[in-house]
Specification:
341 residues; Beta-lactamase; 20% strand; homodimer; 3-stranded antiparallel β-sheet; 11 strands; alpha+beta
Amino acid sequence: MINHSSSDFASNPFTVTVSRGPIIESRHQVIAVISDAKGKLVRSWGDVRNAVYLRSAIKPLQAIPLVETGAADALDVTEQELSLACASHNGEVAHVDAVSEWLKRIGLGINDLECGTHWPKYEAAALELAGAGLAPSAAHNNCSGKHSGFLSTAVYMKENTQGYIHLDHPVQQRIVKVLEDFTDLDLSRAPIGTDGCSIPTIAIPLDKAALAMARFADPSKLEAGRASACHRIQTAVAKFPHMIAGTDRLCTALDGAAHGKVIAKVGAEAVYLAALPELGLGIALKALDGADRAAEVALGALLEDLGVVTEDIHKSADPYFHPILRNRNDIVVGRLEAVFD
Amino acid sequence: MINHSSSDFASNPFTVTVSRGPIIESRHQVIAVISDAKGKLVRSWGDVRNAVYLRSAIKPLQAIPLVETGAADALDVTEQELSLACASHNGEVAHVDAVSEWLKRIGLGINDLECGTHWPKYEAAALELAGAGLAPSAAHNNCSGKHSGFLSTAVYMKENTQGYIHLDHPVQQRIVKVLEDFTDLDLSRAPIGTDGCSIPTIAIPLDKAALAMARFADPSKLEAGRASACHRIQTAVAKFPHMIAGTDRLCTALDGAAHGKVIAKVGAEAVYLAALPELGLGIALKALDGADRAAEVALGALLEDLGVVTEDIHKSADPYFHPILRNRNDIVVGRLEAVFD
């Protein structure tokens, strides 16, 4: 629980501490904001007008064109695949098989993915692959589901399926338009970096990111086709949480146990975005140093503070929200906690 | 190069920035101090009186009893093994074989190691092991060399070889005594945590850690046997740098290229300690958030500022001191830099 001050708008980041034995060993600073769909900030910590690369945390919004163009219906994209389109997945067999089958069904293959290749970050998946004498393909890339969604939209729209990772390709331009609509920003002069999977990543002030997630959570004021896309994506993630991340991952543990009350997605460099459909709120946070361990604890503290952590969520997500550190002999040596300075 | 202020004793931590495209994506705060062997602080950044767990960065000092008890000579401990006693190694075949042979020679085996087991953190070593259908043993633990040194000392001193990881065992008590001598501190009431490999890790003010490293670098005022132990450990690391870490690791790249001018050792949670024998100086630093990537860049900045980075060191260590971030398609997407606020 965050012991937040009486002011609704604390100006300081909050802290996630890493203790070992009797003292704090390391500490992380987190900026965070909770917004409603009109842009009213319910709470914030730190300078949340800072532009932040949202990285993979924005994937649920990047999946909107897949649905609202009509591509998902025309190409029989399943709910499982829709969840995978929002994923930073573990590269487990279930993820890789689903990507391969999806690409095959739309007449393409793994070689059409432009995300690059890496060994699964999930150790067990990497070791299993190596143990079978195999090497990873682009389908193992944690972003391969999102890229399959991009390719599906390009196929349906009869666009070039090559170069879809570049900012001037219609696939990326549609995403820019979605982000502009959801944030009320003109992004034509926003800072743009290159993401791990080579698509553009656009820096957006954290308060506007929370606004975007609130509108995704409560799309009642949006155009009907877009509102429907938001609902379908939420439902898909809640029904197939394993697809959005995988074994031993917070997104999967939380989004599954929340049964649609929370749709949360991690991004690289310690970003977390979450939509709370029942409350019509959006959450955006970043640990300033880019440490994922701090972002997970921070998300838990915000959700607990908002009173949305059910028994089911506690059971599934507490290992991430209140991590206990164990050493190589499985001895408890420390813990992480969210605290106010 | 650090643009340090005109004051020798800046009170603020310095920053390591992580940029992506046109903006800074994440940032780390680093406390650091450079001391001579008399305890004069040459420079410092941040509150360096803070007690910090030195973790594995202190291993070169933890190896002193192995030499000064006479155990190393009596048990024919090689220079390669002495470097391994200071190591957080990659678990590559060379490391694991050396540990196994060392233990066998002193009449013990891998099962006598009390450090626990983990898959090598070096991805290539883990994948190679899995590819051969094997699993790791305690010899793969990155601390197995240090533990072999502990066991050697216990064997030579005719002490119990079980329980050597506990604070009250003579192996650990000798290390406490070394640390008290090198820091001028009474450590009987110091905060003590449990390290990853289950031995005690003692929190020591960062300025005293730098003093300890300066005395290790310039042991001329120490008792002859201890001074000789410091020199032997320095020589062993400089001659067998692969043993102290391994492939693609800063400690190996730097300590090898420095030819004895720098003995640097990383510790978990972003600690770096370094001894500069020619200058008689010690360096201690910690990124407050525990990010190793920041500690490496910070160490480079301090060494460059001190003018000790030779052409050889530049060639070997620049990938760690001035890292370029590349994505999954090998595209340059960002960089890390040490800067003063």
